[in-house]
Recover the amino acids of this structure.
């Protein structure tokens, strides 16, 4: 590949367009397009390799999460539990998570964003299956229905996602980065991000939708940069070295920075709200943001038929619904509520439980908010 010409040069623009025409192809309409036929497999071998990497990566992440959960359960049963970071089993789970995330990262170098991003539902459903099998969690009817819907949605996603073959080189990324579609898109994202950040920081509004929208906006930059970095690494291994171009360093910095701030806001949401609520909503927001980023930046639905797009979106809806059903009310089953049951006390209306109060020296408070310590303090003040 020739060296990059000065910005604004007509030769550079025409060279970039010529390269895009060679590296950017969409499956031609025909007998095998949009169905799992022999022609479809031949055209999409590299995509299926990316799908396989993403599915295996998400399954490894599921295993790692359950291993970490199992290590926490073991430590909790010990008489003198040690810190979790001193557990070999916990570190094994962390190592497996790193392997799974590496598989997801590599998958973006072989398949479109709009195909890889929705496959995150595999991690949620896989975690539910593993927890039922090895951690002896309850298997609910909603779990079976959710898994079925998620698998059906995954099948539609793999079958009807855009079958684009696109070699991601430094010149390609630079061409997309200065395109008017992306410039408008990133300006709107910056405005929305600043408005939400103002309400979050200045007004103290920490609603889950605000936090997860901030995460989704950062996630769009993450998937764009991840695909650029992964694609340029893949291109360097198969064709010509791309890692020496400045655009690679820029995308790598964007990837690291967006991931760091994304984790920050996601952790804040996890602290304020239940995991069973945050996980499905974050999955939906992340997937929608990633799909929009893939469509605008990499133009992944260019030339796609309306029916293909509709079935693809329906597959996304099924995977979203499956994730919601699998995670719904699951955390409540593991909550161990400690209370003293006094039975039916005459003269009391269903006030039969005293909940532990971790914020005071007394054991607990009555459910109606009255506290015996308050009355004692009041009597002391009167004296």
């Amino acid at each position: 590949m020739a060296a990059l010409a000065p910005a604004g040069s007509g030769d550079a623009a025409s060279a970039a367009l010529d390269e895009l025409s060679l590296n950017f192809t969409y499956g031609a309409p025909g007998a095998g397009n949009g169905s799992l036929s022999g022609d479809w497999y031949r055209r999409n071998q590299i995509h299926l390799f990316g799908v396989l990497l993403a599915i295996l990566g998400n399954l490894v992440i599921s295993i790692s999460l359950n291993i970490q959960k199992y290590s926490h359960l073991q430590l909790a049963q010990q008489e003198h539990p040690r810190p979790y970071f001193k557990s070999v089993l916990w570190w094994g789970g962390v190592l497996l998570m790193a392997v799974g995330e590496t598989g997801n990262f590599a998958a973006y170098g072989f398949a479109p964003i709009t195909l890889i991003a929705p496959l995150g539902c595999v991690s949620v459903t896989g975690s539910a299956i593993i927890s039922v099998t090895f951690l002896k969690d309850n298997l609910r009817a909603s779990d079976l229905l959710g898994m079925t819907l998620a698998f059906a949605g995954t099948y539609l996603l793999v079958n009807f996602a855009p079958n684009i073959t696109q070699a991601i080189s430094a010149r390609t990324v630079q061409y997309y980065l200065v395109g008017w579609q992306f410039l408008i898109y990133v300006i709107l994202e910056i405005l929305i991000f600043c408005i939400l950040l103002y309400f979050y920081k200045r007004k103290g509004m920490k609603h889950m939708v605000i936090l997860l929208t901030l995460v989704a906006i950062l996630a769009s930059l993450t998937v764009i940069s991840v695909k650029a970095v992964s694609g340029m690494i893949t291109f360097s291994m198969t064709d010509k070295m791309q890692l020496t171009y400045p655009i690679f360093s820029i995308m790598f910095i964007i990837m690291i920075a967006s991931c760091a701030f994304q984790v920050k806001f996601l952790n804040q949401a996890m602290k304020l709200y239940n995991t069973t609520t945050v996980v499905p909503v974050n999955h939906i927001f992340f997937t929608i943001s990633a799909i929009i980023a893939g469509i605008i930046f990499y133009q992944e639905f260019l030339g796609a038929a309306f029916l293909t797009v509709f079935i693809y979106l329906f597959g996304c809806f099924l995977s979203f619904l499956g994730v919601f059903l699998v995670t719904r009310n699951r955390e409540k089953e593991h909550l161990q509520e400690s209370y003293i049951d006094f039975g039916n006390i005459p003269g009391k209306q269903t006030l039969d439980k005293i909940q532990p109060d971790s914020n005071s020296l007394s054991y607990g408070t009555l459910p109606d908010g009255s506290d015996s310590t308050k009355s004692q303090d009041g009597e002391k003040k009167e004296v």
In short: The longest strand covers residues 353-356. Residues 100 and 159 are 23 Å apart (CA to CA). Residues 17-334 form one domain. The radius of gyration is 26 Å.
